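Fresh eyes needed here. Kindly weigh in on this sequence plus structure tokens:
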Amino acid sequence: MNKAGPSSCALGPNAIATLDAQHLCETHESFSSATIYFPKESEKSQLLPSIVLVGGWGCGERAMAAWAPFFASHGIVAMTIGTPAPWKDTPEARCQALLDASQALQSEHTRSDSPLHQRLDLNARAVMGYSLGGGGAQLAALKDPTLKCSVAICPHDGREYGTQFPPELSASVPILFVCSERDKEADPQKQAWAQYKKTSAPKLIFEVSGGDHFSANGPAGGTNSEFEQGSEPCVLCNCLLAMFCGIAPCPFGTYNGPTGFAKKEAPRGAIGGVVLAWLQLFLLDDESARSRLAARPDIASSFESQKMVRN
């Protein structure tokens, strides 16, 4: 396998706009907040694909907010969501939130006063999740074969929370796994690699050398300090109560710090480069991205794929 794969996580050419999509939550109990990031302008003949992103244990909606503008700048509508019980929501709950939110997002295509009116490609949908949300993204790929692809960031199967992952994962929806070599919260051998082996669809796993549980929270990487810096006031209280009592009473106590925002040059920019190439290949049907996914990034401690050769 070639070395020096995609290394840039620079923003794309599109100017970005955002939309508070709280109105989409009104008819769904599975997600409680939503923000849409989208290209301000696009060619009238070009319909836009979409991806929905969800965080992990204790995460607020903004925990994945570094990814969304990156995707939007490259022509992919991205919606971040929050879940109603982030300290208790299992991968199954996050799976349902992803699927409900993805379908709800498509309604913007027909809403007459939406900035996305008549601009969405209803057949080009993807999901992405971090930690327990990464487990949810894999379950979503299994549950909805109409998805074009899925991305699991430092995924966790939720076994510690009573979740039973199926013995076989996606057989049709392609899945990208991004994990970290030194992840103590989601050990890559017990989590990402074990899940990769259960997946029979086209798949790729990228293990970040020296990385921890927060190293792929944004296209330029991510750090625990930035992740916690955005925490809301009651996060410590909720964390302790969730761990020892199984409850988290304060709705304003989540890890809500985005980290790893896109930049032209970043030591771990290959994270954004690989994820973008994955979406370009499977969501945008851009065959030029296939060769970029065949090159092992310099920051990878492991890099493996299967069923990636075009038939």
